[in-house]
Design brief:
With 90 residues, the protein is mostly helical. Helix content is 84%, strand content 0%. It contains three helices and no strands. The longest helix has 40 residues.
């Protein structure tokens, strides 16, 4: 494995991590902003109020996006294993 192949492998792994984490993180950010706006409007400043909706949002993201995430993970691993003879030293 030369330096270019290692950089490409690391780049694709990091991009894969971002793609897999994006739906859950995006949903968590949206729920967090919504709860923050609600707290600002109603002047309820309870710190623990955001935890339960975020946990529920992450569980919903796992249910909604779980099959897609697993398919992406499956494709990435099969692609990695398929290219293993090209990147492994002989």
């Amino acid at each position: 494995m030369d330096q270019g192949q290692a950089i490409d492998l690391i780049r694709s792994s990091l991009w894969f991590t971002i793609i897999i984490a994006a739906p859950a993180l995006g949903l968590s950010v949206i729920v967090g902003l919504t709860i923050s706006v609600f707290q600002t409007v109603t002047q309820i400043h309870e710190q623990t109020l955001t935890f339960v909706p975020k946990i529920l949002a992450l569980m919903a993201a796992a249910v909604l996006f779980g099959p897609w995430m697993l398919q992406q993970f499956h494709d990435f691993i099969w692609n990695l294993w398929g290219n293993l003879p090209d990147i492994a030293p002989h």
